[in-house]
Design brief:
Distance between the termini: 29 Å
CATH architecture of the largest domain: 3-Layer(aba) Sandwich
Number of strands: 11
Number of helices: 7
Structural class: alpha/beta
Strand order of the largest sheet: 1-11-10-4-9-8-7
Largest sheet: 7 strands, mixed
Shape: globular
Order of helices and strands: EEEEHEEEHHHEHEHEEH
Strand content: 15-25%
CATH class of the largest domain: Alpha Beta
Oligomer: single chain
CATH topology of the largest domain: Rossmann fold
Radius of gyration: 19 Å
């Protein structure tokens, strides 16, 4: 198997053009991103992989329109993004559920805020809960749910309004290894059914390879794209794919890349 760099000349749903971001702080400017060029096609699953604090979350915030670039332009569906973009769902590092609302009420909060018809979306919320294995937990409160269950509810909340784009900021990082594996399998199944354009921020090389069509390797801050790697593994991917030579070739390649960048020690 040969490793392939992803083509970037095809039409894109998400198009970042020489995007840079600098934050002004009391101690001086912090350069988070350095002229990032990136195209993401409709229906792709792309992971942003890089060292902690390199600007992955900043890049995701720019795509969502929650921040504006200091230089360059973010375009979605050929529209320049300078304010919050609404046709997307976001799953954060923490589930961010409201303690006084049940699981299904937390999901429906998205519908209420958007002013959509609750009666129309309530059956959809129940269907999503069933898809993530929480059919019997819709009336449970967050303190009655495990960490993995809370993140499943957060995923349902991000998907309830059927967004075109799904953004995920290290959503499974705080989970134990077995729960994280199951969440990756569940997310892959849901993504294959819905074909959302998905962007996952992660520090896990194995997770990035398992989940993605492409892995975007980012340097330390100020971040730039140092590699755009296409993952040519058949779908659906079972967890057993991680034991194959092909999977291990991708992960070894990425570890070597980060070692060359100085992220991993040579000792």
């Amino acid at each position: 198997m040969s490793l392939v760099l992803a083509a970037t000349n095809e039409s894109a749903l998400i198009d970042l053009r020489a995007v840079a971001k600098t934050y002004e702080t009391d101690t001086g400017p912090v350069h988070a991103l350095a002229r990032v060029d990136l195209k993401i096609k409709r229906g792709e699953f792309v992971s942003l992989l890089g060292p902690s604090g390199c600007g992955k979350t900043t890049l995701m915030s720019l795509i969502a329109g929650l921040a504006t670039p200091s230089e360059g332009e973010v375009r979605i569906d050929d529209m320049s993004i300078r304010s919050p973009y609404t046709n997307l769902g976001i799953v954060f590092q923490n589930a961010e559920l409201l303690d006084w609302r049940t699981a299904i009420q937390n999901i429906m909060l998205q519908i209420e805020i958007r002013g959509l018809d609750v009666k129309t979306y309530l059956p959809i919320a129940r269907k999503l809960l069933a898809q993530v294995g929480l059919k019997e937990f819709e009336n449970k409160y967050p303190d009655e749910l495990s960490g993995g269950m809370k993140q499943r509810v957060a995923l349902c909340r991000a998907l309830i309004h059927d967004p075109e784009i799904l953004l995920m900021d290290e959503p499974f990082g705080a989970l134990d290894a077995m729960t994280r594996d199951q969440m990756n399998a569940d997310l892959q199944r849901i993504w294959m059914q819905s074909k959302k354009t998905a962007i996952l921020v992660t520090h896990s090389i194995d997770e990035a390879v398992f989940m993605s069509d492409r892995v975007i390797v980012m340097s330390a801050r100020p971040a730039s794209v140092v590699e755009d790697l296409q993952i040519d593994l058949p779908r659906p991917r079972s967890l057993d794919v991680r034991d194959t030579p092909e999977f291990n070739e991708y992960t070894a390649h990425l570890r070597a890349r980060f070692k060359a960048l100085g992220v991993f020690s040579n000792d």
